[in-house]
Amino acid sequence: MDTNTAFRTEICPYGTAGIAKAAQLIAEGQCVAVPTETVYGLAADATNGEAVARIYAAKGRPSFNPLIVHLPDLESAERIAQFNDTARDLARRYWPGPLTLVLPLKPDSGIAGIVSAGLTTIALRVPAHPAMQDLLRASGKPLAAPSANASGTISPTRADHVARTLSGRIPLILDAGPTTVGLESTIIAVDGDKLRLLRPGPVDLALDLETGGKIEAPGQMESHYAPAKPLRLAATTAEADEFFIGFGAIAGDESLSPSGDLVEAAARLFDLLHTADLSDKPRIAVAPIPQNGLGAAIADRLHRAAA
Ligand code: TXA
Ligand code: MG
Fold first, then answer.
1. Mean pLDDT value across the chain
2. Looking at residues 49-58, what average pLDDT do you find?
3. Highest averaged pLDDT of the listed ranges 138-142, 177-181, 195-199, 215-219
4. What residue's CA is closest to ligand 1, atom 24?
5. At how many degrees (to 10) do helices 294-306 and 262-278 cross?
6. 125: helix, coil or strand?
7. Does residue 121 line the site of ligand 1, with CB under 6 A?
8. What are the start-end ranges of the E strands in 78-160?
9. Could you tell me if 246 and 259 are in contact, meaning their C-beta atoms sit under 8 angstroms apart?
10. Are the C-beta atoms of residues 67 and 123 closer than 8 Å to each other?
């Protein structure tokens, strides 16, 4: 199985010592639970694909969804995504706070491919909670963080909610008492001067309807990334016209993980799909992946990519 199921979970009060410990774990590529003003998040270094894969391992999420990247301020957010005037205006108005903006990802952002699940857009948020702010500044890293609960359970607004489903699966929970907002951030996709409400939340953007931004009907998530080429799964050998993505004993043209490590494989999945898509071979084959732990999420994504 993966490496993330045997932790002694420490619950540490928010303070200087707790932040130092959390920042140390982030630097080591671990994920830690930390409060934001909305819900507790499970944070990892967004530039480290294996660290982000450990979020999925801890949550037991059966699929990869793009994650929100948390930043200390607008300036650091502008290093990761392209802001136009519409986006900058929203950011200035609502950050720090419970608003997430989906924007074009800068190619040189350094964000691991697993964070945006291969999309060319990225969800960014500058949170208002002092604990998350302190951790962002102490770690010096953009932090990817979904809600800190096991897959299929309710979002946590207190440290003991986190412990209820993630105890034993993560090393640290920073406890700063109950969150104030208690509802996940509003998500808006900015596309030129058009705004799309992807998830309703605490920030009511009715105001922005008056001030020029056009909000389209709520709903539709961005379509998931899929390679442009046909994809064949569970291949033990490849045809001459296939780019072969290997795993474990099957080397392929490039491997998700030569040692058969699912954390490493999850971290490399989207990068290798892009590599295969850009190669001169017209088709893609992928070696068999075990279906346990993170393997289920990898298989889910590959099946969707093959469909
Ligand atoms: O309040 C919050 O937003 C909390 C705290 C921890 O910050 N985080 C949170 O993350 O709710 P999560 O992973 O549960 O939700 C992220 C949402 C997902 O619905 C995902 O599909 C969407 O953001 N998302 C992320 N990147 C996207 C993208 N590039 N395009 C469209 N949707 C995106
Ligand atoms: Mg969630």
1. 90
2. 96
3. 138-142
4. 66
5. 20
6. strand
7. yes
8. 99-104, 121-125, 143-144
9. no
10. yes
Q: Is 184 in the pocket of ligand 1 (CB under 6 A)?
A: yes
207 burial (CB, 10 Å; 0-12 / 13-18 / 19+) is exposed
Q: Which residue type sits at 253?
A: D
Q: What percent of the chain has pLDDT over 90?
A: 71
Q: Is 51's pLDDT higher than 90?
A: yes
| The overall pTM is greater than 0.70 | yes
- The ligand whose atoms approach the alpha carbon of 100 most closely is 1
CB-based burial of residue 254 (10 Å sphere; 0-12 exposed, 13-18 middle, 19+ buried)?
Answer: middle
Residue among 129, 187, 222, 223 whose CB has most ligand 1 atoms within 8 A, to mutate: 187
HSE of 86, CA atoms in CB hemisphere, 13 A: 20
The pLDDT assigned to 221 comes to 46
Closest ligand (CA of 155): 2
